[in-house]
Every structure is written in structure tokens, then in C-alpha cells.
Amino acid sequence: MKKIEAIIKPFKLDDVREALADISITGMTVTEVKGFGRQKGHTELYRGAEYMVDFLPKVKLEIVVPDEQTERCIEAIIKTAQTGRIGDGKIFVFDVERVIRIRTGEEDEDAI
């Protein structure tokens, strides 16, 4: 099993969720996060004063999938989250050793 963490632009969340649902991936955790990479933030104007916004709003998706669904999941995220502009985000893939559903005690792929 793999855990896929994707950091994407917030306005792409619904498109990515729908693309994942189309390939039968329905469970995920979504967190609003802030960060920066090559974008390095930007300046904004508020009541006539300019200030630096160092951390930009992003959304982090966390998805655990069986090994055989990993590539399809990654491709779906890339296809729908990509704008071609700086700040589109990143995808991280981790090995998952064990999953347990608390309610039933099911384990591993049965618990996803």
C-alpha cells in the first residue's frame, strides 16, 4: 500500500476529487495548509500599505491506496491539478506498513 500526499492549489480541489472518484478512489483526508516553494510568496496591498505574504494557501490531500492503484491516482492528480504555472504543487509517495479500521478491526487493504 502507498500513501499519496499531494499539495495543490485550493481552487483545484473539486476537480481533483472528482477525477479520483472517477477511478474509484473515494476516501481521502483534506487539510488546508500554507507554504511556499519556488513561488516565494508575493506582495499585497491592504489599506494602502504593502506587505509581504510569505506563505501561500494550499490544500494537502492524503490518500492511501493499494499498490496497483498508485500510478492511476498520481496520473489523475497531475492531469487535473496542473495549470502549467509555478505553484501547482507536489506529490509525495510513501510506503504504508499497516492500516487498521478502528470501528471493525479490519486491516490493510480491507481497511482502506
TrEMBL record:
Listed InterPro entries: N-reg_PII, N-reg_PII-like_a/b, N-reg_PII/ATP_PRibTrfase_C, N-reg_PII_CS, N-reg_PII_urydylation_site
Keyword terms of this UniProt record: Nucleotide-binding, Phosphoprotein, Transcription, Transcription regulation
A Pfam family this protein belongs to? P-II
Q: Does the keyword Phosphoprotein apply?
A: yes
Tell me if Phosphoprotein is a UniProt keyword of this record.
yes
SMART domains hit by this protein: P-II
Gene3D superfamilies in the record, alphabetically?
A: 3.30.70.120
Q: How does it assemble?
A: Homotrimer.
Tell me the protein family, please.
Belongs to the P(II) protein family.
Checking PANTHER family in the record gives: NITROGEN REGULATORY PROTEIN P-II (PTHR30115), NITROGEN REGULATORY PROTEIN P-II HOMOLOG (PTHR30115:SF11)
**Can you say what this protein is called?**
Nitrogen regulatory protein P-II
Origin species, per record, is: Rheinheimera aquimaris
